[in-house]
Write a structure and sequence with these properties.
Distance between the termini: 59 Å
Largest sheet: 7 strands, mixed
Low-confidence stretches: none
CATH architecture of the largest domain: 3-Layer(aba) Sandwich
Structural class: alpha/beta
Strand content: 15-25%
Mean pLDDT: 95
Length: 458
């Protein structure tokens, strides 16, 4: 896309926003209903696009992508009027007879940059939040999932005016062009490396950002856990989307006494659900050759307990478990983002916690145990974006739980009401009356007045 075209669309979106049309709640509800109908109409085409990018089944695509998209739209349609209402807050006696309110208002023109690994969900869910909050939106999908990007552009650009909601496709050069312009909000999902670039560009315009990044998310397994069920849940969470999930368990920290039992249980679960040498409707491809080669090198760098089968011609890597792993190994130096699961044994919980804390704060963390003291200790001592006890990944599906990272794993959060809040400014309004005016704040300033102010401001 030409630079002039990008500038023109941004300007048109800014003009529409300044007209106040998008601030009307009725208008927002109409647009969300239209979007829901458009998605429903194009559902089959979206399944085909995701299959082309990942060889991903319709079931898997609905479960991990469209189900969350529909849920977010339905939630906004149901509660938007309530979310938009001014909220009265308490005032102290010092402010009598005034009253205080908080008014949510949209920020303006938002740029949403999606990610390739869940190309529908990670584009549409933040866009829904932005539209619900009353913003205009430019959406830039991840270019690596090319067919999914194309279907998003086709269905949105043919059903919405470009001054309101528009998809701009392209690679890194297009993102750079977009970032040269001033937006009122930037929402980015992707790697920490690119997140730094986004943050730096946004700083030039003092644009607020939400960064949904990643990191090495640990799963702690203790000897009192139900090992069979733990293995089942970990295998599902790790190998969902062939491990290309930002909140997937990146590695396991298991108590030494149950390491062997857990490894065998994981191996058994993998055999139950996945085929060693071929793609099935339960499994997906690696997104491209570059990531396939990167993951292959990680597998070759250590000891493989099970899996490790690769077929370059279809970008297939079987669910792989690595053992005899240390924090100094190659597989522990970066987020894996693929179907490779390292297992590290520990004997001292404090040593394990320190190893996690010595590294960047993860996006997620998971704890498998029935010991409440251990759960309390880990939640208190380890900083991470969000997580689960005796499960993995499922916290993402509860829209009442804000989703986001901390530190290098992200800035800000979204989903449900939190998504609406992320794309809103909350305007503080102090409303006084002409009926009464206390003399307290006016001269002459006396010790008696000061004592009274101290009392009222306690």
């Amino acid at each position: 896309m030409e630079k002039e075209s990008i500038a023109s669309i941004i300007q048109k979106q800014r003009e529409l926003f300044e007209s106040n049309r998008t601030k009307d709640v009725k208008f927002r509800l109409e647009q969300l209903n239209t979007l829901k109908k458009v998605i429903k109409k194009n559902e089959a085409a979206m399944y085909m696009a995701v299959y082309s990018d990942f060889a991903k089944s319709e079931f898997d695509t609905f479960m991990t992508e469209l189900s969350m998209v529909y849920h977010e739209i339905n939630l906004a349609l149901k509660y938007l009027k309530e979310w938009c209402k001014p909220r009265k807050v308490a005032s102290s006696l010092l402010h009598f007879p005034a009253k205080s309110y908080i008014y949510p208002e949209p920020l303006g023109t938002a740029l949403v940059i999606g990610a390739w690994n869940y190309p529908l969900q990670l584009c549409l869910v933040p866009a829904i939040s932005a539209l619900a909050a009353g913003n205009t939106v430019i959406l830039k999908p991840g270019e690596q999932s090319a067919e999914s990007s194309r279907i998003l552009a086709a269905m949105i650009n043919s059903n919405f005016p470009d001054d309101y909601f528009h998809v701009i496709e392209g690679a890194a050069d297009v993102s750079s062009q977009l970032l040269n312009h001033r937006f009122d909000k930037i929402f980015f999902t992707g790697s920490t490396t690119v997140g730094r670039i986004i943050y730096k560009a946004a700083a030039e315009h003092l644009t607020p950002v939400t960064l949904e990044l990643g990191g090495k998310s640990p799963a702690f397994v203790f000897r009192d856990a139900n090992i069979r069920l733990t293995a089942k849940r970990l295998v599902w969470a790790k190998f969902l989307n062939a491990g290309q999930t930002c909140v997937a368990p990146d590695y396991i920290l298991v108590e030494k006494s149950v390491e062997g039992v857990l490894l065998e249980a994981i191996k058994s679960e993998i055999k139950r659900y996945y085929k060693e040498c071929s793609l099935t409707e339960n499994y997906t491809q690696i997104i491209n050759d570059r990531h396939f080669e990167r993951l292959s090198k990680l597998i070759d760098s250590g000891d493989v307990y099970c899996g490790g089968t690769r077929k370059a011609e279809i970008r297939f890597i079987s669910p792989t478990v690595m053992y005899n792993v240390s924090f100094d190994d190659e597989v522990m130096k970066e987020e894996i983002f693929g179907p490779v699961l390292p297992v590290i044994a520990f004997e001292d919980i404090d040593v394990a916690i320190k190893a996690v804390k010595d590294r960047p704060k993860p996006l997620s963390a998971y704890v498998y145990t029935n010991n409440r003291k251990i759960v309390k200790k880990l939640i208190k001592e380890v900083s991470f974006g969000g997580g689960a006890i005796n499960d993995s990944v499922m916290h993402l599906s509860n829209s009442n739980l804000p989703f986001g990272g901390v530190g290098l794993s992200g800035i800000g959060s979204y989903h449900g009401k939190t998504g609406f809040d992320t794309f809103s400014h909350f305007k503080s309004i102090y409303r006084n009356s002409f009926r009464f005016e206390p003399p307290l704040k006016y001269p002459p300033y006396t010790k008696a007045k000061l004592r009274l102010i101290r009392f009222l401001m306690r």
